[in-house]
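Friendly challenge for the regulars: who can give me the structure tokens for this chain first? No prize, just bragging rights.
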Amino acid sequence: MSVLGIDLRASGKKPSAVAILDSGSHLTQLGSCYEDSELTDLIDEVRPDLIAIGAPLNLPSGFCCLDQSCDCHFSVPGRKGRLLERELAKMGISCFYTNKGSIIRELIYRGIRLSQDLKEKGYNVIEVYPHATKMLLFGDKLPPKNSAASVAYMIGHLTPLVSGMDDHSDDLDQNSCDAIINAYTGQLHSRSDTDVLGDPEEGMLVLPKLPT
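First reply, four minutes later:
Bragging rights claimed.
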């Protein structure tokens, strides 16, 4: 069961980190791609069983776009994001809401476009959220992602879970660690060690098994 994890960036001008884990959670490939065409070419070459993308992959129910001038709106009044995002908030996990005021609108559009293209080609695609996975696996005392301690923290906590990281030590940064954690979430999903938030109409988020 090979899983390809993507730490997707909002623009093709910045590299999106890509990590591939085999069925034994061994890191077989770590790299980056810029344009969507590079990502899809790599995916077509590798043919992973599952693709885990760290970005919103669906619009809220009732939305056709995120354009402020469009009349589309939440199907349920009073909402400010997708169900899965509201459920994350109840769990104390911060996230960006998917709505017309979102500061990650371009990332949302890119995630939706890439996901749709891959699904049309027959790939199994899931939405993951690295920050939520880290909190559930490692606790809520995470160093800030952009801090000097973040990469060392992630390497220390990922090494017991993912083998082969030593072979890629020169390429490990915050984004590549997120790509690895996304792929690892996909591996957990393949073993039925995950739960999901949200609803099918506006997207499901895959998380490590929630505490009972």
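The mean pLDDT is 94. The first helix runs from residue 36 to 46. Your move, everyone else.
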